[in-house]
Amino acid sequence: DIQMTQSPSSLSASVGDRVTITCRASQSISSYLNWYQQKPGKAPKLLIYAASGLQSGVPSRFSGSGSGTDFTLTISSLQPEDFATYYCQQTYSTPYTFGQGTKLEIK
Amino acid sequence: EVQLVESGGGLVQPGGSLRLSCAASGFTFSTYTMNWVRQAPGKGLEWVSYISSGSTTIYYADSVKGRFTISRDNAKNSLYLQMNSLRAEDTAMYYCAREVEVPAAYFYYYYMDVWGKGTTVTVSS
Questions:
Q1: Cβ–Cβ contact B19 with A under 8 A
Q2: What pLDDT, in 10s, does the model give residues A44-90?
Q3: Touching check for A52 and chain B: CB below 8 Å?
Q4: E-assigned strands of A8-93?
């Protein structure tokens, strides 16, 4: 199985900050990497697909990059509604696996 | 509106069974691969199972293989998860999610673009 490791596990930041979350795969997954946002009590929401594709309706302050084993999710200017938990997911092969999550909190 | 609505969750004793349903609307259900994903209380997301549009390809996580069965009825726009021999560690919110294929140069990328709100399964005596 492909292991996905996110860092950091938690992060405190302020509105307006630029934030980067990293996801590393245990083997090369090309660009089969997606990012989701989850708020408490809600279902996950797709932000980025295929490493860098911005899902329709998602603000342009979200961006993704990377290929192979190392990927990043960047929020260019944090907004109050961005405080949530973020997960990466590989769909290179089953079992699809998620990272452990990064909880983004208000500083 | 594209929508997925899960149902069938509840409290069940260890060793018991439960059947989850996911009703799809607002899109052509029969053309999409579907997945079940779960989340234990306070934990991260765990992929559970996959079924292709025509039910010809099915995958399971090792943690549920042999105990859970995924199925679908395209005529009823519905996805199912039959869960048998339930264990305390199966306690979770269960989400159904639509999978999209996006063509790239020589292959496809896959991602889950629509999720239901989830149904809660609690396994406890």
A1: no
A2: 999 999 999 999 999 999 999 999 999 999 999 999 999 999 999 99
A3: no
A4: 10-13, 19-25, 33-38, 45-49, 53-54, 62-67, 70-75, 85-90
